[in-house]
Amino acid sequence: MHPIPVSLSLAATFLSALTLLGTPSEIYTNGTMFYWTVVGMLIATAGAAHVFVPIFYRLNYTSCFQYFETRFGVTVRLIASVLFLLQTLVYMGFVLYAPSLAFEAVTGVSLWGCLIGTAAVCTLYTTLGGMKTVLWTDALQFTIMVVGLLAVLIEGSKSVGGFSEAWRIASENGRIEFLDFSPDPRTRHSVWTVAIGSSFFWLYLYGVNQAQVQRACSLPTLRRAQVALWLNYPGLLLIVTLVSMIGVVVYGIYHPCNPVKAKLIDRNDQLLPLFVLDSLGKVPGLAGVFIACVFSAGLSTISSGLTAMSAVILEDYIKPIAKRTCADAITKHGIAISKLIVVITGAIQFGVAVLISKFTGLILQFSYSMYAITAGPIFGLFISGMLFPWTNQIGAIAGFLLSVAFMCWLGLGSLIEKPPSLKPTLPTYTYGCFKNLNASFTTNTTLSVMTSSMTMASPMMSSTSAAVAEEPMLFDFYRISYQWYTGLGMIVCVFIAVCVSFLTCHTDPKTIDSRLMCPIFDVLFPWLPEKIRKPLRFGVIYGRTDEPNGDFKVRLDDVTCQVNTEAKRHDNSSLVVEENLSTKL
Fold first, then answer.
1. In which residue ranges of the chain is pLDDT below 50?
2. pLDDT at 107
3. Predicted structure pTM score
4. Which GO BP terms sit in this record (predicted)?
5. 5-21 burial string, b = 16+ CB within 10 Å, else e?
6. Helical (H) or strand (E) element with 235
7. What is the pLDDT of residue 500?
8. Is the dihedral of CA 269, 454, 365, 139 positive or negative?
9. 398-to-144, 492, 516 alpha-carbon distances in Å
10. Is the CB of residue 379 less than 8 Å from the CB of residue 486?
11. HSE-up of 319 (CA within 13 Å, CB side)?
């Protein structure tokens, strides 16, 4: 594959219908501070290209969770992959549900018909075409997304009198803000919260998530994989910029009359479909372009999730179980089994979407925010293994499980308690509703079929209210911005994993297969002299002559702390340290 279609697929995978429908309403409600997420995406792109992907590329694993078995053992591999499968299934169910709601609002087609049609089409082309088809369809769908967003932006700007006029209106009403440098982690959106906090989430997605690693490693060379990751960033920047500009235009049109307060819609996330019907409905075909745009975003995410789950289930569960009894059959029919897994997971994610449609409020909010909550522990496991050579199996398991428990406490607590924000909500108005009411009557009738449970995420779209004088002490803990969830989960996992490892006889760095590790200081500071960088490798010996064929493994019993004698007897003279490791990476 060429890096360009892979880069477009990388960009399209996690810019789902949730991004397209949720970001304009975020800008309308809370202003433009969210745009700092493009800085987090840039940090994640650099980290993925030069820290994580080189490790996976050298190991040549089909499932990125195979890393855990080589580094920590099969138990860590299984518990991490189970959480990934649960995370992906729930997220894909929501991604399937969101565009179906938009399609129902614009066309009047039943929600059930939308769900069945979308799930069937996506599962069919993913099953028949495999990874290559998914990559090319993702590239096409990215193009459709850009065209659809441009159509909405251009026609919407015309309706408000030009984008500069929309910007002026938004600025006068406090929606244009980029310089909130509050260091308080309870600040929902500040420069540090969004730029730094979101970088952990995007690092997880682009650095260690199966869907993205699978795409990057499909290229013939590591250099091309890194090029594809860097080419993906302009695509991310373009989409986020377009949806943010659309949010400004939406505010320019609806600033005198909040559609939610006017009862034209039930939720802020319905703003974009309302806007499309009002602004594009009079132009033949443009409403269809918008629907194609939303569905392209949804299909690219679902197809990527299906291929990722298929690879994980086949490599982490079916092959290990069957290798003692029917290994030859698995090798012979592996492609057919993989396709069958895609069909089964497609049916399951349809069931999850149907289940989501039956609930309102808390369940739906949890289904989206769960992605950020569960990403932290998985990301922490990879960081513990790749950057901290002392981490052993016991430490990895303890860190992972306690991090999951901690993040569930934080995430569920914030969803249930819903503590009032410390920062007041930006004002909205209804003084212009009367003159717009008749014009929007038919739109209101159409949009009324959309369930009130549609939301981007509880922390992202939650309403704010005045702080209560007397409140539980934990409210400040629950107020931590959702943008920090992945980073916080990662830090908890790494801290506990390293501490427990030292308490239970840590791994000797000299016994580690250096292909499993990243010399992070060589990557970040390649200009430092060797005498400074060498101790910063923490005893890991890079460039072993016995590693290229993958024969050297970590041989450490975490309970008895007995190193395999064969590894002990290894002649140190055969271990070569590269003088400039950064050029190799």
1. 361-364, 436-468, 545, 548-585
2. 65
3. 0.81
4. sodium ion transport
5. bbbbbbbbbbbbbbbbb
6. helix 222-254
7. 94
8. negative
9. 45, 10, 20
10. yes
11. 18
